[in-house]
Amino acid sequence: MPDYTAYLTDIQEVSISESALNDKLFELKKLLERLSRELTSGESVQFPNLFSRLVFLAQQHRIPNRLEWQLQHLRVRTKEIREKNEELVEAEYRQHERALINFLELLSGNKTNSDEGLTLSPQPIGKERT
Fold first, then answer.
1. Alpha-carbon Rg for the chain in angstroms
2. Which of 59, 60, 58 is nearest to 75 (CA)?
């Protein structure tokens, strides 16, 4: 069983670091990857990527659909930002950070309001709906 407190500490260290928001997001994704690998290390199933690990974990731990979407969105936005060389805004970074914290709290059994502090919607921030 992972040490969830250590992951929360790592998130806090990333959050207070002087790094650029993009770099902080990349670190959050690395933490999510590390956590998902640790959680699935004893499984006989092979996972080709983070997407499949998250789907498996969502089913195994009965993660709410919205939280699963937020974790997948963290994964996707990290790739988009890296490929398009976009600059992340702090509000979006905080939403991704909160999603990862909610995931850890859910896994550890701590009560949390998964919507608290989150306003992440399927429409990416800064994009107009057409």
1. 14
2. 58
Q: So where are the chain's domains?
A: 4-108
Cα 114 to Cα 41: distance, rounded to the nearest angstrom: 26
Express the helix, strand and coil content of the chain in percent, nearest 5 each: 65, 0, 35
The model's pTM is 0.82
- Average the pLDDT over 87-114 and give the result: 87
- Mean per-residue pLDDT of the chain: 86
Task: Judge whether residue 67 has pLDDT over 70.
Answer: yes
CA pair distance 112, 95, nearest whole angstrom? 15
